[in-house]
């Protein structure tokens, strides 16, 4: 038999990865005009994985996002995919990874999930830290970079062992991880933190009935003060700048010219 | 004297992971900027061999912890060990290379140290209490100068941005007792992807293929072998399962900076550029003259890769 699972997932609001990010001339931030926002792609993968696990084990999924009112969009997106309910930690202003991890720790202590699935990194900050901080502060195990090519397209793919397998007694999870030089597997005692890599799964599209249903699913509001977390930044961004541009290159008409350039100009062959 | 402590990583085969030498170079720069000593930490089932090997790389002291529970670099064992070592010697900066192990383990050590952390540090400036770290955000579209405001500070190092530490005077090796694990995570297995080609992050030349190859990597591999190069790939290629995940170059894959990077059938999405635009010379081969990869390429060839890769290989062979 399978034990029901309660899974907590996150939905950070980030710039669409297709957007062109430009730095403000004064270096205080990025130019907001023309940007579109999405759920962090890694978090969408986390949501998908949680939904698959709960489809198998039964139980409940809860999504958390920390930010201003606008993060309701990402919470609704996760609920449209199928997540049962949402927790919104209302805060505007900069938040670093220690603050986020501190808030998520408190939410976990309140919600007591069997597993928290987060993205391995947010595509704006690119820090790759929150899940690890949170796991240590909770005293939980961690399985970062969960990954295994799995699509639901073919029967061959469907019959593969998934990257996350919960033990028969409901007390452990085995996770396949993408690490340097290959794939590693660890087994964590539950509750545990898992963070997702790109190839864990292919997130579903939110179905139309799901989008309708998400509108009436509950969003609970919490605040850092209410959770008793000091969110004063421990990491401050002093200045942002554009990366140094590469010097303009040239087009070469054929392989012969390319070879000559590589030999005499670049001197790499 | 304050201490900068760098985690020295062992590969699964027990040898030194070369990225750690670059982390040591960054550590030396930081030690200089903050008037600190540079120390290293080696953790493993038997850490002494590796500790002896690295002690000559400008380290004052190498702390070696040998214990059965340290055999695999789990965050739940190596993280607390690094934190407790940092506490016991009074290290104020704790760093590692931004490898899979570094990224997994060091934030856990930072959490235990109540330390703020910067990932993928590319530059170090300022001095004393005003050290500023430069790191990428938004897949390298932005360079951010950041300051860490906690008493102990953690960081991972982007290996391509720092030279490898050079061997010099040898420091001392000191044993330390790592704490027993309190979180019962178990290592199950490691499935290595074996390759006879050079390691992607260490190769002098990298030949990468994208979706334009349609999964046919024969010409990419043949050219790589002619050049003694490593093979890389875009996300699209790894996602499709055409090559192992480990070959992905980019924001969420490997960061490479070889002397020569050849991209064939890769469009040049910002997430891919994030992993290769530090290469010395970039060659792009793409059918589409408007492909963004040409904006970072030193030499662009608008052509069908299936036609020109064999030509290029023959030309390189002839030039030998
Ligand atoms: C969160 C996130 C993280 C990501 N991380 C990464 C990452 O780390 N690394 C990465 O690479 N991508 C990453 N991506 C994906 C990235 O955005 C692109 O989708 C991906 O790089 C595209 O791969 P590609 O260039 O091979 O494919 P495409 O964009 O489809 O380009 C194929 C190119 O091949 C050319 N072509 C086709 N046939 C031929 C031919 N016969 N001869 C020559 N040229 C031909 C086409 O003109 C085209 O330019 C990430 C995306 C997200 C959202
Ligand atoms: N504001 C936020 N709200 C919810 N989850 C977040 C937030 N910021 C970060 N996270 C989670 O932490 C993960 C890692 O982020 P980072 O350490 O910032 O790269 C993300 O993929 C999210 O799952």
Walkthrough of the structure:
- The complex is a heterodimer of chains A (269) and B (320).
- In chain A, helix 2 crosses helix 6 (208-214) and helix 3 crosses helix 4 (130-138).
- Chain A has helices at residues 41-57, 72-81, 97-111, 130-138, 155-158, 208-214, 224-227, 255-265, and strands spanning 5-10, 13-15, 37-39, 59-67, 85-90, 115-119, 141-146, 164-166, 172-179, 182-189, 192-196, 219-222, 235-241, 250-251.
- Chain A has 269 residues and is α/β, with parallel strands linked by helices.
- Chain A has a single domain, classed as HUPs (Rossmann fold, 3-Layer(aba) Sandwich).
- Chain B is an alpha/beta fold and 320 residues long.
- Chain B folds into two domains: 3-175, HUPs (Rossmann fold, 3-Layer(aba) Sandwich); 200-319, TPP-binding domain (Rossmann fold, 3-Layer(aba) Sandwich).
- In chain B, strand 14, helix 7 and strand 15 (281-286) form a beta-alpha-beta unit.
- In chain B, helix 3 (75-89) crosses helix 4 (100-112) and helix 5 (218-227) packs parallel to helix 8.
- The radius of gyration of chain B is 21 Å and the shape is elongated.
- The model of chain B has no long low-confidence stretch (mean pLDDT 97).
- The chains are: A alpha/beta (269), B alpha/beta (320).
- Chains A and B meet through helix 3, helix 4, strand 7, strand 9 and strand 10 of A and helix 3, helix 4, strand 5, strand 7 and strand 8 of B.
- Strand 13 (235-241) of chain A pairs antiparallel with strand 8 of chain B, so a sheet runs across the interface.
CATH architecture of chain A: 3-Layer(aba) Sandwich
What is the correct CATH architecture of the largest domain in chain B?
Answer: 3-Layer(aba) Sandwich
Continuous helix count of chain A: 8
Helix content of chain A: 25-40%
By CATH, the topology of chain A is: Rossmann fold
Largest pleated sheet of chain A = 7 strands, parallel
Keywords:
heterodimer; A: 269 residues; alpha/beta; Rossmann fold; seven-stranded parallel beta sheet; three-stranded antiparallel beta sheet; 8 helices; 28% strand; globular; B: 320 residues; 2 domains; five-stranded parallel beta sheet; elongated; binds flavin-adenine dinucleotide; binds adenosine monophosphate
